Amino acid sequence: MIQWIAFILSFAGILLNAKKNMWCWPIWIVSNILWIIFNLSQPTPDYATLCLWMIFMMSNIYGWFQWGKDSYEKNKDSALCDPKNQSTMGCEDDYEPIGWQKHLTDKDGY
Questions:
Q1: pTM of the model
Q2: Whole-angstrom Cα distance, residue 47 to residue 37?
Q3: 36-44 long-range Cβ contacts below 8 angstroms, 24+ apart
Q4: Which of 76, 29, 78 shows the shortest CA–CA distance to 55?
Q5: Is the separation of the CB atoms in 2 and 34 below 8 Å?
Q6: Numbers of helices and strands, H then E, in the chain
Q7: In degrees, to the nearest 5, what angle opens at C-alpha 91 toward C-alphas 89 and 94?
Q8: pLDDT of residue 92 exceeding 90
Q9: Per-residue pLDDT reduced to its tens digit, 22-71
Q10: In sequence order, what are the residues at sequence separation of 6 or more whose Cβ sits closer than 8 angstroms to the Cβ of residue 6?
Q11: Taking the domains of the chain in order of start, what are their residue ranges?
């Protein structure tokens, strides 16, 4: 039963991540904890898989904090360049494509 709950939460985390919803991170953390519990409840735990789930959980924690930090920085910057604010001099869009984006924009004539 626990593996089905972990499976459903893992799948929900994927869907939330695809929709760029920050709730994907805590959902994945809970699913990783359930996978760890499931693995440890087996008669012969697979320690390599256990380590993998622990690495996934650590990367989910890092991703959650990083996404929150990036979101805060983005919102902070967008508030400074709000078009309704009359004192937003120099807030032009200076987007510069990088990497594969540059290749696509050069080829397509953008």
A1: 0.59
A2: 12
A3: 37/2, 38/2, 38/3, 38/6, 41/2
A4: 29
A5: yes
A6: 4, 0
A7: 140
A8: no
A9: 888 899 999 999 999 999 999 998 899 999 989 988 988 888 888 876 66
A10: 31, 34, 35, 38
A11: 1-72
pLDDT-based confidence at residue 20 (cuts at 50, 70, 90): confident
Structure tokens at 93: 């869009």
Two structure tokens written together for 14: 């994927």
Mapped onto helix, strand or coil, the DSSP state of residue 61 is helix
**Higher pLDDT residue, 49 or 77?**
49
